[in-house]
Amino acid sequence: MEPDSSQDKAKRAAGVQAIATYLKNGMKIGLGSGTTSRWFIHTLGDRVKQGLEVIGAPTSNSTRDLARQLGVPLADLNDVGELDLTIDGADEIDANGRMIKGGAANLLWEKIIACASMKMVALVDESKVVSKLGKFPLPIEVIPFGWRTTEGHLKKLFSDFGWTDIPIKVRGGLQTPLITDSGHYLLDCELGEIGDPDGLALKLNQIPGVVHRPTERYDAVWCPPLRLAGSYARLRNPVLEHLGRLEGSWIIIGTSGGGGRDSEFFQAS
Ligand code: 5RP
User: Fold this and answer.
1) Whose CA is nearest to atom 6 of ligand 1?
2) Which of the given ranges, 18-22, 159-163, 257-261, has the highest pLDDT on average?
3) Residue 169 · residue 137 · CB < 8 Å
4) pTM metric for this prediction
5) Could you say which of 3.40.50.2300, 3.40.50.10750, 3.40.50.300, 3.30.70.260 is the CATH number of the domain covering 138-214?
6) Which ligand 1 atom is at minimum distance from the Cα of 38?
């Protein structure tokens, strides 16, 4: 498959670069979801046809279907255990490496896969780099049972954080709600700028019906496009592997998995 738009070309270029830089023969890899990840998986399929040996653990049913169709060998996460690497996209990332994921509704499996990985690489473009998270409604995955009660808890929490009258929408609408791969709903919460994402994530996790906090703190920083030297990264965080600007101004950020693993796993080589 060939990309039509410059944005798709850029997405593909990012995937090609990520594979060339991070992927090694024999690796067990988490396969992300979303349009950026789909391009990466297409390239991965080509590499597998050329002889690359990898085993993929998908972060969604749609990723599993695509990988299978492209001949990428797959395994159940239960059978492979720890993964060497996950390559995925993101919806937003701030200067502290905090990301919001879930735009494509796959946040829970993505989180589980990232936490099982020794390293995570996020492919993002400049449009996704924000000074404060909250450009898009915050997606929160909730259990359908008693979801109105959960929504009530969310409203209370948002008000504790200083927000008033936040619109909360069930993704897909009440008549035909989107059901995630795990059988849950997504509530899109129009918060606007999130001043304290870490504090919010902590509190979100304490609400019984919330199955995944959508903001994720990864050990990464983003590099402004004009400051490509690794020195900028090293100032903040030794785990960053920054590859520089790619076609269409895409950048790649190497991050640790979300599992709170020891950072020595992630030292930039
Ligand atoms: C899915 C995700 C995706 O990685 C995120 O939405 C980015 O998608 P895209 O590459 O299409 O912009 O988190 O849940």
Assistant:
1) 103
2) 159-163
3) yes
4) 0.82
5) 3.30.70.260
6) 10
